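Weekly puzzle thread! Below is a chain. First person to post its structure in token form gets bragging rights.
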Amino acid sequence: MLAEEESIYNLIPKEYVAPPKPAMHRSRFNGSTLPPTGSTFGTHTTSKPGICNLGGDYEEPAGGAHEFRKPGATFGVPKGSLKPNSSTFLRKSPSQTSPQRETIRSDGGRIKEQRKPAVPTKDEKPLMGLATSKNFVTSNAFENILTAAKKPVDNTKQFTKKVDYGRTPEYLQKIKADINDEYEFIRKMQEAEEEQKRSTVRVLTDEERDALLQGLKAQWEKINSQYQLITHVVTLDTIGKVRRKEQYEQTLAQIEKDIERINKKYIFVDTTQ
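Winning reply:
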């Protein structure tokens, strides 16, 4: 109860006690040999793609002769590692060695060095005063006279000697075959249309034509007789008289057109209607 109540001792500042620091976490995987998953460090100048270690491997995979990443490409090489060695400034490089002389194998199995011919000594004198009795002018003249003339080379192409001379090219044969196929397809379509028309259309017989003519003529006589009954009417004072007269005239004109069509040689009748 005393701890919960106010006390003057609480005004005295207490000494700060730092909390204990936890131990540093150290991963059991070595991060210096392999970059993290999906890393892009050090892959810009290598043959690897732009992103490496997508599988999250713990060990660096064997990528052949190519480097997985260039050394020091992330944060550079260690400071001072590129400083030249002053003790090797005037020394010859180990790679700059003198070339070995080529050796040849002579008779007897011995190996001797291949050298240039020796320089003549001061006692050796060259052969001087050598002359020939050959007349080069006459010799050249005889050679040119006796030599057969060269035939001119004919570089013109002999198209008549070609293997496919006189034959129709393959591309034309293909085009002709395509055209013939199209013609055959069109012919079959036309035949199918004609066959369909034949199945739905027939020619009107003479007996049927005579019957139609007789019927049309009888109808024309009937309407004409009715039309003649009103021809004497001069004054058409009602709308009914005007319409009746116009109807008779239209009907007679239509019957006359039908009779003219029936008189043709061939008349086709649609059987589907």
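Puzzle host: Confirmed. Bonus trivia for everyone else. The radius of gyration is 60 Å.
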